[in-house]
Amino acid sequence: MIRKFANDRRGNYALMTVLAMVPLMGALAIGIDYTEMTRERQNALNALDAAGIATAQQIVAGATDAEAKAYAKNFFEANLAHIDPANTTLAVTLPNNNAGGGTLKLCGTLTYKPYFLPTAKILLGGSSGDATTMAFNTCSEVRLKNTLEVSLVLDNSGSMTELGKGSNKVRFDLLKDAAKQLVDQLAGQAQLMKQVSKPVQFSLVPFAASVNVGSGNASAAWMDTTGISPIHHENFNWAGMNSTPYPTKYAQYIAGVWYAKGTGWDVTQKDLPLTRFSIYNQMKRVATATYVSQFKCTATYSNGSCKTWQSGYNYTYAGVAAWGGCVESRPYPDNILDTVPSSSTPATLFVPMFAPDETDLTDSNYPPRPANNNWMADGTPAASTSAQRQSFMPKYFADPGTTVTPGYGMNAGPNTSCSTTAITPLTDVSVAAGATAVKAAIDAMAASGATNVPEGMAWGWRTLSSTAPFTEGRAETERGNDKVLIVLTDGANTYYTPSSVTAQTYSGTNWNYGGNDMAGSKAIYSALGYIVPFSNVTYSYGRMFLGTSSNVTKTDYSNANYTKAMNEHFTTLCNNAKAANIMVMTIALDLDATNTAEKTQMDALKACSSDSRFSKDPTNPSKPMKLFWNSTGATLSNDFKAIGNELSNLRIVS
């Protein structure tokens, strides 16, 4: 009987079917649950993304922290479709608490309760008590409007005082109005962004022949305070101030540094490095000479009694000049880079400008022309050539005498070619005080001097940087931040030969006939120094020609060749800045395309500009628009509005 039952195959199909139902039903249950779980999870993610975008828009419109969190929760739950909000949780991390660089982070948890999984567990040999819920976590990040760091690099040369084309106002006034309008436009948007620290910052870099970094930075670590830069002493002959003719007040070269030696120095200088700051600080003049009623004896009898009495004066002394804040251009390639200054690499340090006192001698022209910047007596150098007079150091430390003389301020004496107001570092314009400060700095600008666009642009880049000399910029790696250079000029790059400009009025008679170059410097002094400095053992020629191509003749000492050299520096600088992810916007103001030099500048400015991320070239819609504006006095205001709109587009929620 038992053997028969075992051999009977008639019920196998039903039995196999019953046995097969267990995995089949389990698979079906799991499939249904997986499909539903996936659907709910996607719905929750969609709701999370939508809530992020919507909440970000509320934040940039000025919602408070509490309002933003409540809005996010309500929006998320309203968009869950058929999911029960009780099965979800939402965590909101606001931008001001998130390390992601201005991002809103929403994290949601979905608790899924399976329909058939308990049954499947029973069919697979488990029990209904083993069934549990399933939880899924997901996050969504929304970048708010980009933070912006904008440097206004604005031409402050003398030509800015001319009338703007198509306008009855001078260019400088038009520029100030347009620049302040741009600050107001972006500040208004920034003031709504309560969730992001410093959403929009502006720096201001006025430039002419040089750039003023601020006299308060005299002792900054990035300044050359010990005279170790290879250009620091290029116009000074400290060796001529030795102990033989000047035993109490001489200079000694020790381990690459010139030191003040001898008993004649005051305690603020004795045994310390001799630098350009030393000259500013140690030069003295008679400020006042006050007659006193008492008498002094000028001659005595043999017995010692006074023979001749003479009324006397009391003298007060003051400095001849204080450093105005302008610095020289660093030697190539650091003049066109944002290289961090370091004393371990002396050429990267910044050197204060000091325009040497030039020769007292006049040339043989008729009428005889004085030197461009003859602001003190030459003294008595061992030799009397004009080059030696110009580099003669004892004259700066001589007895001031008894004659009352005036001090020299900006763009005069040793501060010649330092005509601009100081840089305004990056300043948060989302607060009223910051916006007011930037606009006040714009109003304070003064137009005078030549045009050195590459020097201005290089300093604009440095104000955007997170590293010294100005460190207010956000880290270059920070997400959601744009660094923007806006460069405006109304003329070609200029550097002048001595005879092509009038001399300083104090340089002597006939100053308005131009200056002489009896010292052979080949240029008036400015940020690039002299084209042929007194002593240049480091470079084969002046800094003007360093890094330039064969198209620039190194022995051509003409204004046109100087412009060519500066243009090459400008082009390389533009490429360097854009390679460092700096967005460059350029404006040519009232430049004339029929003038060769100005046309060259226009072309260089356009080539320097970045491509727009949003706007297409109206003449070729397949290409992005270049961020270059060919402006006139009549269009400048509208062009700045267009710049503001372009910058506003950078800050959309994404």
TrEMBL record:
Any Pfam family hit: Tad
Keyword Nucleotidyltransferase: no
Start and end residues of each VWFA domain: 149-212
InterPro entries (alphabetical): Tad_N, VWF_A, vWFA_dom_sf
Transmembrane region(s): 12-32
Organism domain of life: Bacteria
Keyword DNA repair: no
Keywords tagged on the record: Membrane, Transmembrane, Transmembrane helix
Protein name: Pilus assembly protein TadG-related protein
Species annotation: Mesorhizobium opportunistum
